[in-house]
Amino acid sequence: MRTTKLLRLPFLTLFALFFSTNILAQTGNVTGTISDENGFYLPGANVMIPSLSKGAISDFEGKFTLLEVPEGTYTLSVSYLGYNEKEQQIVVNADITTEVSLFVEQKSLELDGVDVVAFGLGSQAKALSTQKNNLNITNVVSTDQIGKFPDVNIGDAVKRIPGITMQVDQGEARNIIVRGLSPQLNSVTLNGSRIPSAEGDNRNVQMDLIPADMIQTIEVSKAVTPDMDADALGGSVNLITRTSPQGFRVSSTLGSGINFITDKAIINGSFLLGDRTKNGKFGWMLSASFNDNDFGSDNIEAEWTDEFEYYSGTDDIDGEPILEEVDVNPYTNVFEQRKYLVQRVRRSFSANMDYKFDVNNTIFLKTMYNWRDDRENRFALGQEILDPEDIELGDFTITNGVPTRFPAVVARQTKAGIDNDRNKNRRLEDQRMQNYSLGGNHLWGNLKFDWMSSYAKASEERLNERYAQYESEYTVTSDVLNPRYPRFYAADPGDATNFEAFAFDEITEENQYTEEEDINVFVNFQLPADFFGQGDGFVKFGGRGRFKSKLRDNTFFEFDLEDDLPTLANVPLKDYSSADFYAGNQYAIGSFASEDWLAELDLVNGAPVPDEFLRANFDVDENVFAGYVMANQKLSESFGILLGLRVEATSITAVGN
Q: What residue stretches are annotated with the Outer membrane protein beta-barrel domain (predicted)?
């Protein structure tokens, strides 16, 4: 019992201190929202009571709170980038929270003899105001800036921020790099809740999974503060979904286009509907997005080396071939042409709502479900110089120090799926991400308290991914006159189309499934504090728990069909050469095993290949517990300081092979 009393004593003392302070000071609180003339919330607004030198900055929902305001009548001033300054009289009573709603109007400038017509700053002004008033190094992008560019996914929108680069897949931004640090060293959150990763061998969050039109604001913090996750070494990206409006709102978009590689239509659409009850207590917002893009890509890939060896014709005493080395200039030793046919279908749904019990207590629920189907066929023509022991004098030609003719192994590979309504003869990557967050914001005297708990899950499933490869060997000519566009082609054109010489190499089928589940819980407390007598400051402290589980379950099978399908001439072929090949019409990719044939192939009694999958399978649990304390204080009118400490403890349990 004595231990319990000792533990309670600091909290009772702290409570008594706050209680007595309120009684002696006879203070109240002021809370409210800042909106524009259209009723849209304004984040980053500067709210001040000039006579007290007391102020606050509105959050992403336009809300602000002023604590410990002495009883009396004051003028409340609101300033905002691109908007007229707004003043309003308020009356503050002791031990009562005064609620106000302020609406500001955009500035207009009249010049003598000149009419100026322009688009308003809109929500980008909101983003700039938020960016200007943030404590750390932050970039903020608003929804109207996102909408000005043809960005299908949120990754393409993020890459426009200074200091951000993206790893690209099929022309779409996927993995984020902040200040040059790799994607797994950055954190991505949705409304402050960590987004799980469905990548099997890393922690990357695929940014191309989330449609751009589902996000209201992107906030990139390049310097993390103690109240943020400590593993975000490069930075943290917070994606903020649309919040409940102050009144009825409906919006929809519909667009289309055409892809000139596949001549298939591109379809885009989105819908948004929201409202708030007449008493202002309950607000809701529903939104949905759909994108269907059936496209393709043509590319060439080359590897270079400055080493060249060939078999001298003699062996050493151990029977090993003796190789001769030739000094050469850099040349292409591996060359590959690829043609992709891809269909990406994105669907996204979001439902957000909030309920205000009273001026001091609000709860909210934010949900999002993203589902992407990525269907792909790939046709790859790979050509690589033979091993040195397989090259003899007379098999090659070196011109001006550059090998321009040599024997190569040539492979023709088809990538496909199975024939059903989901795969449609293509490799299907089914990726989903869902997030459900419940939280609240509360004001108890001069103590601000917010909390949130969330459940998130990400999964990636790739079933029946099939490859068929046939190989041949013949002499190729290497054209490197233009290093940007190198090219291999058969020295004897008949070799490239002699499909009977392309022998069976392999037919495989792979299944992959990766899943990650995250449960997050955090609480934050904030108290006003002015240690140096220079105006507003605060002390903030809190804790967080993150509980993650991740599993990967893959299989890989090989099928010995060499007796039934010994050469490429024994299977249905399809020619994918095109004069419109985007890398140039000099690249004739040729014929491959038909994806339709591979999809319909009845693959049974395959031999498992453990080296291809067994060591990659795992089941991991990770628990993170964190606590922090931080203080933000003004040392002078133009200089402030933020100090803090964060402690994290991580435990990991893993089962693997």
A: 602-653
Phi and psi at 294, nearest 5°, equal -105, 100
Indicate the burial class of 319 (C-beta count within 10 angstroms; 0-12, 13-18, 19 or more).
exposed
In the chain, domain spans: 2-104, 289-529+555-615
Using the predicted structure, report yes or no on whether residue 246 has a pLDDT greater than 90.
Answer: no
Indicate the helix (H) or strand (E) that contains 18. helix 2-25
Exposure letters 450-487 (e unless 16+ CB within 10 A, then b): bbbbbebbbbbbbbbbbbbbbbbebbbebebeeeeebb
SS3 content of the chain, % helix, strand, coil (to 5): 15, 60, 30
Decide if 166 contacts 154 (C-beta within 8 A): no
Q: How far apart, in Å, are the Cα atoms of 33 and each of 3, 63, 65, 448, 538?
A: 45, 4, 9, 16, 21
Cα(402)–Cα(485) distance, integer angstroms = 16
pLDDT band at residue 134 using 50, 70 and 90 as cut-offs? low
Q: What pLDDT does 456 receive?
A: 96
Q: Are 634 and 216 in contact, with CB atoms under 8 Å apart? A: no
Q: Which residue, 353, 390, 383, is CA-closest to 368?
A: 353
**126 pLDDT tier (thresholds 50, 70, 90):** low
CA distance 517 to 220: 24
Q: Does domain 2-104 have CATH number 3.40.190.10?
A: no
- Residue 137 confidence (pLDDT) above 50: yes
Task: Read off the tokens for 261.
Answer: 């590689």
Mention every residue, 6+ apart, whose C-beta is less than 8 A from residue 549.
516, 517, 619, 620, 621, 622
